[in-house]
Amino acid sequence: MGDACVAEGAAWLAAREPRFGRVLAGCGPLPLRRQPEGFDRLLQAIVGQQVSLASANAIWGRMQAAGLVCEDAVAAADDAALRAAGLSRQKMRYARALAAARIDYAALRDLPDAQVVARLMQVDGIGAWTAEIYAMFSLGRADVLAAGDLALQEAARDIFALPSRPKAGDLARMAQGWSPWRAVAARILWAHYRVIKAREAVA
């Protein structure tokens, strides 16, 4: 999926759902936000789990400086090296599990969305959110929605005037009508979430 696809999907969604159209009118063109593929991208996602962005960036910088961003290096590293980079015991286990999985990242490009997510979730430490984000941004899939993302849930609550923030299953059901452009719908929701946070900052 490239910029043209994002624009096409946004136009399709705006025509189908006027509330998306109003969000788009206020936020302008949506960013593509493509990311690299491969082991280091998933390792970086693991590093960032349950820590602040600043902490995640600092740990990742130490991982890079230590050369601990490829499968062989992580597999060979002892606890002291991984701890020095900032990994907790749990994240050491997850990093090693990812290295041991020896995922064929090139082959993922040819798998259907559900199979990509299922394959990645076989690895200890990779849940649905991480797998779906990888499919959306590293593989450029157009019809994947990370329904467990709290920002997407909160944006959906605001846009659709829901009484409470929808759970992942509720948002996934809502999003069925946004297929085949659910990843573009996610970008609209994230754009609106930024508007919500800006509004809260001013209030």
Task: Please characterize this protein's 3D structure.
By secondary structure, the protein is mainly alpha-helical. The protein folds into two domains: 3-34 and 143-202, Endonuclease Iii, domain 2 (Orthogonal Bundle), CATH 1.10.1670; 39-138, Orthogonal Bundle (Endonuclease III, domain 1). Helices cover 66% and strands 0% of the residues. The termini are far apart.
Which terms would index this structure?
203 residues; mainly alpha; Endonuclease Iii, domain 2; Endonuclease III, domain 1; 2 domains
Number of domains: 2
Which architecture name of the largest domain does CATH use?
A: Orthogonal Bundle
CATH H-tier superfamily of the largest domain: Hypothetical protein, domain 2
And the CATH topology of the largest domain? Endonuclease III, domain 1
Radius of gyration: 18 Å
Order of helices and strands: HHHHHHHHHHHHH
Q: What is the 3D form?
A: globular
Helix count, DSSP H or I runs of 4 or more residues: 13
Give helix % range.
55-70%
Structural class: mainly alpha
Top-tier CATH class of the largest domain? Mainly Alpha
Mean pLDDT: 93
Amino- and carboxy-terminal Cα gap: 37 Å
Q: How many β-strand runs?
A: 0
The fraction of residues assigned to DSSP E strands is under 5%
Largest sheet, in brief, is: none
Low-confidence stretches: none
